[in-house]
Design goal:
This protein is about 50% helix and about 10% strand. With about 325 residues, the protein is α/β, with parallel strands linked by helices.
Protein backbone atom coordinates (compact mmCIF):
# COMPACT_ATOMS: atom_id res chain seq x y z
CA UNK A 1 0.00 0.00 0.00
CA UNK A 2 2.78 2.41 0.86
CA UNK A 3 2.95 3.50 -2.78
CA UNK A 4 -0.83 3.59 -3.23
CA UNK A 5 -0.98 7.10 -1.85
CA UNK A 6 0.65 8.39 -5.06
CA UNK A 7 -2.88 8.29 -6.44
CA UNK A 8 -3.43 11.63 -4.82
CA UNK A 9 -7.09 12.07 -5.70
CA UNK A 10 -7.97 8.55 -4.79
CA UNK A 11 -10.74 6.33 -3.47
CA UNK A 12 -14.36 7.28 -4.00
CA UNK A 13 -13.33 10.02 -6.46
CA UNK A 14 -13.29 12.34 -3.43
CA UNK A 15 -10.18 14.38 -3.89
CA UNK A 16 -10.21 16.77 -5.97
CA UNK A 17 -8.99 30.00 -0.03
CA UNK A 18 -6.34 30.66 1.48
CA UNK A 19 -5.71 33.83 3.49
CA UNK A 20 -4.82 36.87 1.38
CA UNK A 21 -1.33 36.85 2.84
CA UNK A 22 -0.75 33.29 1.72
CA UNK A 23 -1.96 34.07 -1.79
CA UNK A 24 0.46 36.97 -1.89
CA UNK A 25 3.23 34.57 -0.94
CA UNK A 26 2.67 32.70 -4.20
CA UNK A 27 2.86 35.94 -6.17
CA UNK A 28 5.98 37.13 -4.39
CA UNK A 29 7.95 33.97 -4.96
CA UNK A 30 7.61 33.84 -8.74
CA UNK A 31 10.89 33.50 -10.55
CA UNK A 32 9.82 33.16 -14.15
CA UNK A 33 6.34 33.88 -15.40
CA UNK A 34 4.53 31.82 -17.97
CA UNK A 35 4.89 33.63 -21.25
CA UNK A 36 2.61 33.53 -24.23
CA UNK A 37 4.35 31.36 -26.73
CA UNK A 38 3.06 29.88 -29.92
CA UNK A 39 0.86 26.92 -29.06
CA UNK A 40 1.41 23.95 -31.30
CA UNK A 41 -1.06 21.21 -32.03
CA UNK A 42 -0.28 17.86 -33.54
CA UNK A 43 -3.63 16.63 -34.74
CA UNK A 44 -2.32 13.11 -35.25
CA UNK A 45 -1.24 12.82 -31.62
CA UNK A 46 -3.91 15.06 -30.06
CA UNK A 47 -1.32 17.10 -28.18
CA UNK A 48 -1.20 20.80 -27.38
CA UNK A 49 2.01 22.21 -26.01
CA UNK A 50 3.26 25.37 -24.37
CA UNK A 51 6.67 26.38 -23.06
CA UNK A 52 7.36 28.59 -20.07
CA UNK A 53 9.92 31.37 -20.03
CA UNK A 54 12.23 29.16 -17.95
CA UNK A 55 12.04 26.40 -20.56
CA UNK A 56 9.61 23.99 -18.93
CA UNK A 57 7.46 22.31 -21.59
CA UNK A 58 3.83 21.69 -20.66
CA UNK A 59 1.68 19.31 -22.68
CA UNK A 60 -1.97 18.32 -22.67
CA UNK A 61 -2.62 14.99 -24.37
CA UNK A 62 -6.22 14.28 -25.43
CA UNK A 63 -5.66 10.56 -25.02
CA UNK A 64 -9.41 9.91 -24.93
CA UNK A 65 -9.43 10.26 -28.71
CA UNK A 66 -7.69 6.87 -28.99
CA UNK A 67 -10.20 5.34 -26.60
CA UNK A 68 -12.96 6.61 -28.87
CA UNK A 69 -11.32 4.85 -31.82
CA UNK A 70 -11.11 1.67 -29.75
CA UNK A 71 -14.81 1.78 -28.81
CA UNK A 72 -15.89 2.06 -32.45
CA UNK A 73 -14.05 -1.14 -33.36
CA UNK A 74 -14.66 -3.03 -30.11
CA UNK A 75 -18.43 -2.68 -30.57
CA UNK A 76 -18.15 -5.00 -33.56
CA UNK A 77 -16.93 -8.00 -31.57
CA UNK A 78 -17.92 -9.79 -28.36
CA UNK A 79 -14.64 -11.68 -28.16
CA UNK A 80 -12.73 -10.48 -25.12
CA UNK A 81 -9.43 -11.57 -26.60
CA UNK A 82 -10.10 -9.55 -29.74
CA UNK A 83 -11.10 -6.52 -27.67
CA UNK A 84 -7.86 -6.84 -25.70
CA UNK A 85 -5.85 -6.82 -28.93
CA UNK A 86 -7.72 -3.75 -30.13
CA UNK A 87 -7.13 -2.03 -26.78
CA UNK A 88 -3.41 -2.73 -26.93
CA UNK A 89 -2.99 -1.77 -30.59
CA UNK A 90 -5.24 1.29 -30.75
CA UNK A 91 -4.88 2.74 -27.25
CA UNK A 92 -1.88 1.41 -25.32
CA UNK A 93 0.56 1.54 -28.23
CA UNK A 94 -0.18 5.27 -28.57
CA UNK A 95 -0.55 6.45 -24.97
CA UNK A 96 1.17 4.09 -22.55
CA UNK A 97 4.62 5.65 -22.71
CA UNK A 98 3.34 9.21 -22.37
CA UNK A 99 0.51 8.61 -19.91
CA UNK A 100 0.75 5.35 -18.00
CA UNK A 101 4.43 4.45 -17.63
CA UNK A 102 6.69 5.67 -14.86
CA UNK A 103 7.99 5.04 -11.38
CA UNK A 104 4.46 4.38 -10.15
CA UNK A 105 2.95 2.70 -13.22
CA UNK A 106 1.76 -0.20 -11.08
CA UNK A 107 -0.99 2.13 -9.86
CA UNK A 108 -2.64 2.04 -13.29
CA UNK A 109 -1.93 -1.60 -14.05
CA UNK A 110 -5.65 -2.38 -14.28
CA UNK A 111 -6.27 0.43 -16.73
CA UNK A 112 -3.37 -0.70 -18.91
CA UNK A 113 -4.25 -4.38 -18.93
CA UNK A 114 -8.05 -4.35 -18.97
CA UNK A 115 -10.19 -2.69 -21.68
CA UNK A 116 -13.26 -0.84 -20.37
CA UNK A 117 -16.20 -3.19 -20.03
CA UNK A 118 -19.19 -0.91 -20.56
CA UNK A 119 -18.62 0.44 -24.06
CA UNK A 120 -21.84 2.46 -24.24
CA UNK A 121 -20.98 4.20 -21.00
CA UNK A 122 -17.45 4.98 -22.16
CA UNK A 123 -18.83 6.32 -25.45
CA UNK A 124 -21.28 8.57 -23.61
CA UNK A 125 -18.56 9.75 -21.21
CA UNK A 126 -16.27 10.67 -24.10
CA UNK A 127 -19.06 12.62 -25.78
CA UNK A 128 -19.61 14.63 -22.60
CA UNK A 129 -15.86 14.97 -22.09
CA UNK A 130 -15.25 16.29 -25.59
CA UNK A 131 -18.13 18.76 -25.30
CA UNK A 132 -16.61 20.22 -22.13
CA UNK A 133 -13.31 20.96 -23.92
CA UNK A 134 -11.13 20.05 -20.91
CA UNK A 135 -7.82 20.75 -22.67
CA UNK A 136 -7.95 24.51 -22.17
CA UNK A 137 -8.85 24.14 -18.50
CA UNK A 138 -6.15 21.53 -17.88
CA UNK A 139 -3.48 23.65 -19.61
CA UNK A 140 -4.46 26.68 -17.57
CA UNK A 141 -4.12 24.67 -14.35
CA UNK A 142 -0.80 23.19 -15.45
CA UNK A 143 0.57 26.64 -16.31
CA UNK A 144 -0.52 28.03 -12.96
CA UNK A 145 0.97 25.06 -11.12
CA UNK A 146 4.31 25.36 -12.93
CA UNK A 147 4.37 29.07 -12.16
CA UNK A 148 4.04 28.33 -8.43
CA UNK A 149 6.47 25.39 -8.35
CA UNK A 150 8.91 24.70 -11.15
CA UNK A 151 9.47 21.12 -12.24
CA UNK A 152 10.55 19.18 -15.27
CA UNK A 153 8.66 18.97 -18.58
CA UNK A 154 5.20 17.67 -17.74
CA UNK A 155 2.44 15.95 -19.68
CA UNK A 156 -1.16 15.78 -18.47
CA UNK A 157 -3.14 13.05 -20.22
CA UNK A 158 -6.92 13.20 -20.29
CA UNK A 159 -8.71 9.86 -20.38
CA UNK A 160 -12.19 8.52 -19.68
CA UNK A 161 -12.48 6.85 -16.30
CA UNK A 162 -13.08 3.35 -17.62
CA UNK A 163 -12.73 0.74 -14.87
CA UNK A 164 -11.11 3.07 -12.34
CA UNK A 165 -12.75 4.80 -9.38
CA UNK A 166 -10.44 7.75 -8.89
CA UNK A 167 -9.95 11.03 -10.72
CA UNK A 168 -6.21 11.47 -11.09
CA UNK A 169 -2.83 9.82 -10.71
CA UNK A 170 0.82 10.77 -10.91
CA UNK A 171 2.53 7.79 -12.54
CA UNK A 172 5.96 9.38 -12.35
CA UNK A 173 7.94 12.59 -12.56
CA UNK A 174 6.48 14.73 -15.34
CA UNK A 175 3.52 12.40 -15.96
CA UNK A 176 -0.02 13.04 -14.78
CA UNK A 177 -3.16 11.28 -15.96
CA UNK A 178 -6.66 12.56 -15.28
CA UNK A 179 -9.52 10.08 -15.57
CA UNK A 180 -12.47 12.23 -16.50
CA UNK A 181 -16.10 11.47 -15.68
CA UNK A 182 -19.34 13.40 -16.32
CA UNK A 183 -19.47 15.01 -12.85
CA UNK A 184 -15.98 16.47 -13.29
CA UNK A 185 -16.44 20.25 -13.10
CA UNK A 186 -13.84 22.66 -14.42
CA UNK A 187 -12.86 23.63 -10.87
CA UNK A 188 -12.48 19.97 -9.93
CA UNK A 189 -10.29 19.43 -12.98
CA UNK A 190 -8.07 22.38 -12.07
CA UNK A 191 -7.66 21.15 -8.49
CA UNK A 192 -6.90 17.65 -9.69
CA UNK A 193 -4.21 18.83 -12.10
CA UNK A 194 -2.63 21.03 -9.40
CA UNK A 195 -2.71 18.23 -6.80
CA UNK A 196 -1.14 15.69 -9.12
CA UNK A 197 1.39 18.19 -10.46
CA UNK A 198 2.67 18.68 -6.92
CA UNK A 199 3.05 14.91 -6.62
CA UNK A 200 4.95 14.95 -9.92
CA UNK A 201 7.45 17.56 -8.74
CA UNK A 202 7.74 15.81 -5.39
CA UNK A 203 8.51 12.54 -7.21
CA UNK A 204 11.14 14.30 -9.30
CA UNK A 205 12.94 16.00 -6.42
CA UNK A 206 12.23 14.21 -3.15
CA UNK A 207 10.86 10.68 -3.52
CA UNK A 208 14.09 8.75 -2.96
CA UNK A 209 14.28 7.02 0.44
CA UNK A 210 10.97 8.48 1.59
CA UNK A 211 9.43 6.82 4.64
CA UNK A 212 5.95 5.59 3.74
CA UNK A 213 4.62 5.30 7.27
CA UNK A 214 1.29 6.77 8.38
CA UNK A 215 2.71 10.24 8.99
CA UNK A 216 4.59 10.21 5.69
CA UNK A 217 1.42 9.26 3.83
CA UNK A 218 -0.67 11.94 5.54
CA UNK A 219 1.89 14.70 4.94
CA UNK A 220 2.44 13.61 1.33
CA UNK A 221 -1.25 14.07 0.52
CA UNK A 222 -1.54 17.12 2.74
CA UNK A 223 1.18 18.91 0.78
CA UNK A 224 -0.59 18.27 -2.53
CA UNK A 225 -3.96 19.33 -1.11
CA UNK A 226 -2.51 22.53 0.31
CA UNK A 227 -0.67 23.32 -2.92
CA UNK A 228 -3.92 22.97 -4.89
CA UNK A 229 -5.69 25.18 -2.34
CA UNK A 230 -3.13 27.94 -2.86
CA UNK A 231 -4.15 28.07 -6.50
CA UNK A 232 -7.85 27.20 -6.42
CA UNK A 233 -9.24 27.69 -2.95
CA UNK A 234 -10.35 25.32 -0.24
CA UNK A 235 -10.00 21.69 -1.37
CA UNK A 236 -12.89 19.34 -2.06
CA UNK A 237 -11.98 17.20 0.96
CA UNK A 238 -13.04 20.06 3.22
CA UNK A 239 -16.64 19.47 2.19
CA UNK A 240 -16.62 16.19 4.11
CA UNK A 241 -18.07 17.03 7.49
CA UNK A 242 -15.82 16.77 10.51
CA UNK A 243 -16.00 19.31 13.30
CA UNK A 244 -12.99 20.40 15.33
CA UNK A 245 -13.83 18.24 18.32
CA UNK A 246 -14.17 15.09 16.20
CA UNK A 247 -10.86 15.82 14.49
CA UNK A 248 -9.16 16.29 17.85
CA UNK A 249 -10.54 13.02 19.24
CA UNK A 250 -9.60 11.01 16.16
CA UNK A 251 -6.13 12.53 15.89
CA UNK A 252 -5.43 11.74 19.55
CA UNK A 253 -6.44 8.17 18.75
CA UNK A 254 -3.95 7.77 15.89
CA UNK A 255 -1.02 10.02 16.79
CA UNK A 256 0.78 7.27 18.72
CA UNK A 257 0.70 5.15 15.54
CA UNK A 258 2.17 7.70 13.13
CA UNK A 259 5.24 5.53 12.59
CA UNK A 260 3.16 2.51 11.57
CA UNK A 261 3.48 1.01 8.09
CA UNK A 262 0.64 -1.48 8.64
CA UNK A 263 -1.44 -1.41 5.48
CA UNK A 264 -4.92 -1.65 6.96
CA UNK A 265 -4.26 1.10 9.48
CA UNK A 266 -2.71 3.47 6.94
CA UNK A 267 -5.54 2.88 4.45
CA UNK A 268 -8.27 3.37 7.06
CA UNK A 269 -6.81 6.56 8.47
CA UNK A 270 -5.71 8.07 5.15
CA UNK A 271 -8.83 7.40 3.11
CA UNK A 272 -11.35 6.98 5.90
CA UNK A 273 -13.96 4.25 6.14
CA UNK A 274 -17.09 6.37 6.51
CA UNK A 275 -17.59 4.84 9.92
CA UNK A 276 -14.84 5.27 12.49
CA UNK A 277 -12.99 7.75 10.30
CA UNK A 278 -14.68 10.20 7.92
CA UNK A 279 -13.82 9.79 4.27
CA UNK A 280 -10.52 11.48 3.42
CA UNK A 281 -9.59 11.84 7.09
CA UNK A 282 -5.85 11.65 6.36
CA UNK A 283 -6.12 14.11 3.49
CA UNK A 284 -8.02 16.61 5.66
CA UNK A 285 -5.64 16.38 8.60
CA UNK A 286 -2.63 16.49 6.28
CA UNK A 287 -4.02 19.63 4.69
CA UNK A 288 -4.51 21.18 8.14
CA UNK A 289 -0.97 20.29 9.25
CA UNK A 290 0.64 21.81 6.15
CA UNK A 291 -1.65 24.86 6.31
CA UNK A 292 -0.74 25.43 9.97
CA UNK A 293 2.96 25.10 9.20
CA UNK A 294 2.84 27.66 6.39
CA UNK A 295 0.73 30.09 8.41
CA UNK A 296 3.24 29.84 11.28
CA UNK A 297 6.24 30.15 8.91
CA UNK A 298 5.04 32.64 6.28
CA UNK A 299 8.56 33.22 4.99
CA UNK A 300 8.77 29.62 3.73
CA UNK A 301 8.42 29.18 -0.04
CA UNK A 302 6.41 26.43 -1.69
CA UNK A 303 9.57 24.59 -2.70
CA UNK A 304 10.97 24.84 0.82
CA UNK A 305 7.96 23.36 2.58
CA UNK A 306 7.59 20.78 -0.17
CA UNK A 307 11.09 19.52 0.66
CA UNK A 308 10.56 19.36 4.43
CA UNK A 309 10.48 15.89 5.96
CA UNK A 310 7.13 14.82 7.43
CA UNK A 311 8.60 14.79 10.94
CA UNK A 312 9.99 18.32 10.76
CA UNK A 313 6.88 19.76 9.13
CA UNK A 314 4.57 18.10 11.68
CA UNK A 315 6.68 18.97 14.71
CA UNK A 316 6.93 22.64 13.71
CA UNK A 317 3.43 23.05 12.33
CA UNK A 318 1.65 23.97 15.55
CA UNK A 319 -1.09 21.53 14.59
CA UNK A 320 -1.19 19.90 18.03
CA UNK A 321 -1.66 23.29 19.68
CA UNK A 322 -4.44 24.17 17.27
CA UNK A 323 -6.42 21.15 18.46
CA UNK A 324 -6.40 22.20 22.12
Amino acid sequence: MRHLIILGIALFSILIGCEEGTSNKINNQKNDAIVSTEKTSNQDEYIIEQTTENGQTLRIFSAYEYVQEYVKKAEKTDELSEQKKLWDNIVMDHIQESCLSGEHSHLVKEYVSTPPKELNKVKDDITILRASEPEKTALEALEKSADALQGQDTTVCILPRGNLDYGGVNVGAGKVSVFYFPQFSKERLKQTVAHEYHHSVWTEKIARNYEWDLLGSIIFEGKAEYFASLLYGEPVVKTYHMDDEQEKQLWNRVKDSLGSTEDDLVNTVLYGDGNEFPYSFGYITGYHIVRDYVENHPETTVEEWTKLTPEVLYDKSGYEESLK
